[in-house]
Design brief:
Elements: H1 11-61, E1 64-66, E2 72-74, E3 108-111, E4 117-120, E5 130-138, E6 146-155, H2 164-169, E7 171-178
Antiparallel strand pairs: 1-2, 3-4, 3-5, 5-6, 6-7
Length: 182
């Protein structure tokens, strides 16, 4: 009598398939880790860019032109370092040297990872993810009528920025504001 033919897989075949599948999945793990790291870095760069754009636009929105008599006029009193602009600052008056390199009150604010304003002053409050600094520099070619506006957003010193060069560079925007006759 002939034995019936059994169709299916043997245990050895199943174990071999599982081993191959496991090896393939394990080889993809470093790629997944790299993709997650790149995604986090891209998110930080996007938030930092949005924060820099927000401040440069606030600076650009400050008055800088001529009054009704044709005399130079401009905002030199707005403080942008708080959660809302106030009238106790320097506006578009020239900033002191070094405001992009260190935390100078009136030219720095501290923000959470989601961009919420946390504080200002010479020291970041707890929870600071980004330090935003700005400078208003008279235009060398026409210091009375032109301003170079610079904003830099850096990861806070306590954050884990994997690339020291990226932390040092941060996000930097530069714009020009010039008085023009209307």
């Amino acid at each position: 009598m002939r034995e019936p033919r059994v169709r299916g897989f043997t245990l050895v075949e199943v174990l071999a398939a599982v081993a191959i599948l496991t090896a393939a999945l394990l080889s993809l793990a470093p790629l997944l880790g790299a993709a997650l790291k790149a995604s986090r870095e891209a998110e930080r760069a996007t938030v930092a860019s949005a924060l820099a754009v927000e401040r440069i636009e606030q600076l650009r929105s400050l008055a800088w032109g001529f009054d009704e008599d044709g005399q130079p006029a401009g905002d030199t009193t707005t403080d942008l370092s708080g959660p809302q602009p106030s009238g106790a600052g320097t506006g578009l008056a020239a900033s002191p040297p070094g405001t992009l390199d260190r935390d100078v009150p009136g030219f720095v604010d501290y923000l959470a990872g989601d961009g919420r304003w946390l504080g200002r002053g010479s020291r970041p409050p707890p929870g600071t993810a980004y330090v935003r600094r700005w400078a208003v520099v008279p235009l060398a070619a026409d210091p009375d009528n032109g301003r170079v506006l610079e904003v830099v957003v850096l990861p806070a010193a306590g954050t884990r920025e994997p690339d020291p060069a990226a932390r040092a560079a941060g996000t930097r925007l530069v714009s020009l504001k010039v008085r023009a006759m209307g």
